[in-house]
Write a structure and sequence with these properties.
Elements: E1 10-11, E2 19-25, E3 28-32, E4 37-41, E5 44-46, E6 49-51, E7 54-58, H1 73-100, H2 105-118, H3 126-135
Antiparallel strand pairs: 1-2, 2-3, 3-4, 4-7, 5-6
Helix pairs in contact: 1-2
């Protein structure tokens, strides 16, 4: 049974007598005990105290990962722009690992160096071709040897 708690409530937990509920989504809650943040999963109120099946504990609000599945396009775009502005090199390397499964610090550093020096696109050139087709850009030129990946 999901606990009947809502954002802004002060509740008792094992961590503190005055824990504030920062957010509730279904049977999950984001809590602040005064000293730590808790992402509590499977919350239940038993004998006036909030308990949960398992939790993730953070010392700073900055350590709490965002819930990206609920972010819209503008929020994701803003986050990516912020990452690019503050630490573009590491963002690019992380994308390469996720998308292409590249491994190894030296390899990633060399690939990033060539990306910077040779001016190739981070995304597949096929996106440029599709964009040109959809926007009917007559002056778009695609390399003759380009073939779509199958």
């Amino acid at each position: 049974m999901t606990a009947a708690v809502k954002k802004g409530d002060f509740i008792r937990t094992d961590g503190a007598d005055q824990t504030v509920v920062l957010d509730v989504q279904g049977s999950d809650a984001l809590l602040f005990t005064g000293t730590q943040f808790i992402k509590a999963h499977g919350i239940q109120m038993i004998e006036g105290k909030l308990i949960w099946d398992f939790g993730n504990y953070y010392q700073s609000i900055d350590q709490i990962p965002k819930n990206y599945e609920n972010l819209g396009f503008q929020d994701l775009k803003q986050d990516l722009a912020s990452m690019k502005q503050t630490n573009e090199a590491e963002m690019i390397k992380a994308l390469l690992v996720v998308e292409n499964r590249f491994e190894g610090t030296d390899l990633l550093n060399h690939i990033h160096e060539r990306f910077e020096n040779e001016g190739f696109n981070l995304l597949n050139d096929g996106f440029d071709r599709v964009h040109a087709e959809l926007t009917r850009e007559e002056d778009y030129e695609l390399d003759e040897d380009w073939e779509p990946e199958i």
